[in-house]
Amino acid sequence: MGRTPSSDKNGLKKGPWTPEEDQKLIQYIQVHGPGNWRNLPKNAGLQRCGKSCRLRWTNYLRPDIRRGRFSFEEEETIIQLHSVLGNKWSAIAARLPGRTDNEIKNYWNTHIRKRLLRMGIDPVTHSPRLDFLDLSSLFNSTQLNLSSLLGLQALSLNNNNNNNINNNQNSQNFSFDTPLSGAEEEKESYCSNFNNFMKFEIPESLNFDDLL
Question: Where is the HTH myb-type domain (predicted)?
Fold first, then answer.
């Protein structure tokens, strides 16, 4: 069971909202719109202050509220807006359709702020801070890159050694006495004929005028 709502000296309720109160607020706004929040509680038959009604509608009851995890694009937008607007969560929420200022503030404090600190970025000034940098993660990533580089170099050396061994074996197995295959005999014959053609000498007694 939830906590029983209390009342202040003016008779207005405080604490958790009941389903009946939510329904009254929703029905009134659907018909009349939000209007003046100061006068809305009395017109809707609610024993709540105007601020409580406004926050209840804005953060929980609006039909266009988006639920679930923030996307990467939303996180980047929040970081960019925070670097300009600071902790003005209402102004930031106005540029993120469907997200509430309360939800954005909570997500900043529980996720984004910690991520910026791990990256060595001051979450207030958005400037680099080496004293905030998580050196353990940086060392692990550097060690991983070095291991990958050494592995690639070792693989390259092994490939070069294998190629040298294969070349030595091929040179040792070759012999000039080895019979040529059909394709190699044809190539050898073509080269021999071409050399003989290049050695052909034109007789000095040949008269070109007779041929024309």
Answer: 9-65, 66-116
